């Protein structure tokens, strides 16, 4: 009998009902071309929380989805000239209304973290799952977003050996500031019932 490539997703029928080849059942699937394989020895044990809006402070316009699928029209807003040609992705994106999108299978490497280091390891894209919240860094987030985020994190904790949950600001300090002070870390911790050791010192 051959060993499954991703045994963490082949443990129980309940997980099989939620996940198929790293895709989450309750997310709107929109495949991004911006991904690659994880290193063979990668242990997917980190969740990274981001915030994003395009242009900054404008919501519910589909631009994040277009960015992650290389469909953004760079001419439609002056801000886009500063990110022209950017090729990035995240595994998940949660809109202000709590709608959940997935762009890359969790078993693959998305391009969300950039130059980064956390828990003694560099290149966090290799062994992390990226979750983008629609919002402006430093500002607050909506109750439906926290509800969706909590449910998603709970599902990820069941399927992967997650041991750390951090913000982009924690894995790339000085370079990134999201999700920022408006993100309610105690709320997420309480909703998941996790020990403080899972989270950055805040």
Topology, pairings included?
Blueprint: H1 13-18, E1 19-20, E2 23-24, E3 28-29, E4 35-37, E5 46-52, H2 63-68, E6 92-94, E7 100-102, E8 108-110, E9 117-118, E10 121-122, E11 128-134, H3 143-159, E12 164-167, H4 168-171, H5 185-192
Helix pairs in contact: 3-5
Description:
The chain is of the alpha/beta class and 202 residues long. It has a single domain (7-198), classed as Peptidoglycan recognition protein-like (Lysozyme-like, 3-Layer(aba) Sandwich). It has helices at residues 13-18, 63-68, 143-159, 168-171, 185-192, and strands at residues 19-20, 23-24, 28-29, 35-37, 46-52, 92-94, 100-102, 108-110, 117-118, 121-122, 128-134, 164-167. It has a six-stranded mixed sheet. The chain has a two-stranded antiparallel ribbon with strand order 1-2. A hairpin with a 2-residue loop joins strand 9 and strand 10 (121-122). The termini are far apart. Mean pLDDT is 93; it is low at 1-5.
